[in-house]
Structure formats: C-alpha cells, structure tokens
C-alpha cells in the first residue's frame, strides 16, 4: 500500500482512534456537502451565489473576466485546478432561456477560457458542459453555468481513485490572478 493511504479496515475505525496519520483530510469539501453558498430557492434573491458574485471585486469573487452578458469565475469546489465556470449575469435556469447575445458571448467566453487555461497551465484537454436541472446533477440548478475543466494526461492519479479527493497545488486567489493575466494576453 502507498504511504499515507488508508486500508479498508482502517476506514471503518471510529473518530478519534489512532490511524498513524493515514487519512487524507479535505475539510473544504464539507462546506459544499453541507450546502454552503447554495440558494434557498429558485429566485435570484434566494441567495443565488451567481447573482451575488458579480457585485464583489474580481479578487473577492474569484472572477477571471467580465463580459457584457456573462462572466468567468473559478469554481469554489473544483474538480481540477483551474476549473472555471462561464455564467450569465441574468438569472436563468435553462440554456434555451438565453437570448442570442448571451448565447454568443457564453460560447466566446468558453473559447477564451480554454485559450487562457492552455496558456496558464498547459492543459492537454477539457471537460466542458452544463448540468441542466437538479436531476442532471446541477448543484445550483436555478442559475445556468457552464463548466470548463482543464485536464492533463494522467491527471486521474491515485488520489481521486483511491483517496477519493483531489489535490490542488495552488490557492484559488493565485489561480485567479494567473488566469486573469493569461486571459488578456
């Protein structure tokens, strides 16, 4: 077994039992699991983070770039380092609700996100998509958002497979700064 990894019997130990430092802690994920920053209802004034983020500074909101109809923001609970979302300012749930200019800018921002991520991180590929509705896995179903997740050959190493966690080697604020600079290049 790899150093620092936990065997199946050790996973069944109770809290507080010695484990020889063989657990991988990801406490930031608990905020997501418990629903932090999730809206209480479908309306924009029901605590929608995608409606409140644009009111913050770029640094505080982790906004990489602002457009006329959409903005690019880092995901607080990323699947991979550099995980961006392209989000319309307008509070709409479904892709079919976007008007022509919003649709065009969402597509253009997706292309620009890919370009910036390649320049900043050397991404080899991307997972791009939107989950439409809670049944499709949308964490915030009331406000449309498109994920742009950079991928690298071999990035699915033992950590997500065995440890059920991702290791992100950079603070989100630092990632935002690097991508914002690459976006403008």
Protein model, in words:
The protein is built from seven helices and five strands, in the order H-H-H-H-E-E-E-H-E-E-H-H. It is an alpha+beta fold and 185 residues long. It has a single domain (25-184), classed as HIT-like (HIT family, subunit A). The termini are far apart. The model is unreliable at 1-11 and 19-24 (pLDDT under 50).
Which term fits the overall shape? globular
Structural class: alpha+beta
Q: Say which CATH homologous superfamily is assigned.
A: HIT-like
Strand content: 5-15%
CATH topology group: HIT family, subunit A
User: What ranges have pLDDT less than 50 throughout 5 or more consecutive residues?
Assistant: 1-11, 19-24
Helix content: 25-40%
